[in-house]
What we know:
Number of domains: 2
Shape: globular
Radius of gyration: 23 Å
Structural class: alpha+beta
Amino acid sequence: MSDATSRATQKGVRIPTNRWGRMARMGGLTAGIAGNVAARGSLELLQGRRPQLADLLLTPGNVSRVADQLARMRGAAMKAGQLLSMETSDLLPPELAQILARLRSEAHFMPPAQLKKVLIENWGRDFLKSFKKFDVQPLAAASIGQVHRAQTKDGQDLAVKVQYPGIRDSIDSDMRNLGLVLRASGMVPDSFDTDRLLKDSAEQLHEETDYAREAAALSRFGAYFAQEEDFIIPAVHPDFSSPDILSMTFVTGVPVETVATLDQATRDRVASKLVELTLRELFELHDMQTDPNFANYLYVPETGQIALLDFGATRRFAPEMVASYKALYRSAVTCDDDTAFQAMIDIGLVSPDTSDRDRAHILRIFGLAAEPLRTGGILDFGTSGLLARMRREGLVLADEQVALAAPPADTLLLQRKILGCYLLAERLRARVDLDPLIERFL
């Protein structure tokens, strides 16, 4: 389950299911921020200081208010907040980015009465007769649904993902309302393309609320890896699945981040398998689970396997796009800037009429990203510092107003997956031998 939070940190809060209820929460959020600004501004004036609007807006209290309200609403509002926390983490003060990042690991779950109503609507009033056990307390809660453990009468252990009521129908209005809040509150920098973020978030969320689509993806990936020992993929249980509920086999494991406490060889193997998985999804399967949230992976200590859990955000890539990415990666290895830039044009990352100045800036950051592929050998994610250097270069590009095209949604999701894979390998302090991967996929 993506964006999942442990049951220990959850509490039941009824989800507003209609448009007006959700809009009222957004209106209250804006009013609360305005009140905080007025109170703090008055205090600053009384103390003889002239307050700056940005300093009044970007306070821990205001950001915490946004994070808490979006966590209560879930759905599109929470999903956009999660993406916002990832994409602006280098532009906000560290303490504020940390508060907003709560949305990647915090959500409230439905109270039992609201949950029961959803289950009855999908399974009928006698649904409990089909189960030996059904744990009302969820294992995890996320932006669009929560997961419960259950056992059927015939002894099958299931993970039952239940979609929050009204989420599917509230996506577009939530995004419009959230856009108004973000612009009115000044919580994000003016240079950030908020409209693009909200549009991409809405598109992704529409797909993630389609549980039939996710069930099909689970079945596809189950077939891809049926003969492999390294990965476990849950199987769909169609008898207990519907448009609002997705039931699948229950997988026992520990959060993948806990691998960071294990020996170096285990950390290296897990990270290598996930890097290989990402490359295989792109270059061989042309089919990728694009949500990089760490909660989408479990580690099974008894077998050393990695469980892949959430397939709501899957994308199939057209062969021509894959070919362009392969050309881009190969040019990274061969230091061929002309081929690299043409591949960027084909992908939609840059415009054909990019100025020579901007082209030079873009190729500079590309060369930085390409360093591991050009040098080959073992990449030590724990000590390379590559991601921090790329972040600094990205800020330079923004300051110098280098013209970058708004990439297609597929490209954005792919980039997010690659970044998530890098962040996890960095978290595990893993060392990955790139040579066999370059030889196999490029």
